[in-house]
Structure formats: C-alpha cells, structure tokens
Here is the input.
Amino acid sequence: MHTPDCAILGMGYLGKPLAEKMFENGSRISALKRQSVSANLPVNLHTADLNHPRVFEADFWQTWADKPLWFCLLPPSAVADYPALLAGWLQLARNFGIKHIVYAGSTSVYGDAARPCSEHTAPDPQTESACKIYRVEKLLRESGIPNIDILRLGGLYCAKRHPLHSLLKCSNLTGAHRPVNMLHRNRAVAALHRAAVTPAGLRIRNIVEAQHPTQYNFYRTEAAKLGLPEPAFNLGDQSGGKTVYTVYGDFADLLL
Here is the structure.
C-alpha cells in the first residue's frame, strides 16, 4: 500500500513514532510542535504558539500545502480553545484542497457509565476534555473533506510512559474491578498508519485492545513486567465501567 506524504499536528508521544513509521514507508513529512524538539528524522519541523490569533497566517503552513494527508494528534490540553483551533486548521485544509485527515480522538467521548460501547453507541461525553473532543468530531464530520478518519483511542501506555507511575502515587484506588480499555502506543501508531494508507470516506473506529482485564489484574501484570510495586487498589470497591470494542474488522487484527 502506498504511504502518502503527510503533515502532523502534534509531534509528541504519538507524533514522533508515527513520523518514523511514515518516513520508513516513503512519506515526506511536515510537522508542527508547540515547543522545540530534536527529531533525528528528515522532517520539515516547525514550532508555533497555537494560541496566537494569527497562527494560521504563518509562512510555514505552505510546507503543508502539498501534503495530501494531515494528522491531528493534538490533545485538548494543548491550547486554550481546542475546537476553535481545529476549526481554523480544518479551514486551512479546505483552502489547500486536502483530501484526507486522520484524527486521534478518545474513547472518553462515551462517558463513564457501565455499558458496552461500540461505534454504534451514542457518545455521552462528561468531562470538559471529552466534550471538546466530541465537538471536534462534529467539525470533522461536517468539514466536507472527502476522507475523514476519527480513531477513538483507548488509554495509551508503553514502558517509557505508563499510567502505572501515576497510580503508584495514590492509595485506596477505586475501580479495581472495572474493565480497562487500553492501547499500547505501538498499536496506536499501527492503526494511524493503516488509516493513512486506506482512505475510505468518513470512518469512525474504536481502537482499543481486544482484551479487557480488570484494572487490578491489568496493572498488577504491568507492574511485574516493569519491576514496580503493585498499585494499592481497594478490592472492596465493586463499581463497574464501560467496555469499548469495535464491530468492524478493518483494524481488529491490530488489537489482538
């Protein structure tokens, strides 16, 4: 499959390994990061204050004009007004005639209610961050750009950056028996790349590992792998949580 030239908004936790994968498969890459970063890749990398009201008038965007595929990996916490920034970014994409956008969203749009959640489940965003992500999903769906991929990613983890470290700072943790909806960073990058090389109109997919152990079992297993203590869960807490899965087969093999 042909890997197109691309532009990446957000060169952090997912952006750097994604750029590596795209480059290894023949893509020319432009990228934007909020702060300076070293990247041992031939990437046309710029930094910018995304909160600046005239950010989209900057000259460096011209290096994005000939990239038919754009990624958005930027989290809501990155800017003051996330939906407004992405609205401006999408307008720029339309002005350049971009044909394909891949957006790294989140399963947080389903809320916290204990229920199974597929792509056919109505979202119920409850946090400020989830509400902003869902508003951007709406902007993407209504953008008129021919190919839109909205990938609702599970909770990201890898050995270098693991949520276990935060849990170890707490005691009497709730949710011991809730199912996890996790996604290793390598699987996330593989899914982003697959979306990039298989444009298919409007596509919304849950990208979550197929197995859903309880939080207690998941984190004690991860602690053993990393040589860290087990987190202190309150095993008496019987509260439940959502289980996110995909009903489609186009990414399922990456999630086993």
Notes: The longest helix spans residues 82-96. The chain has a mean pLDDT of 96.
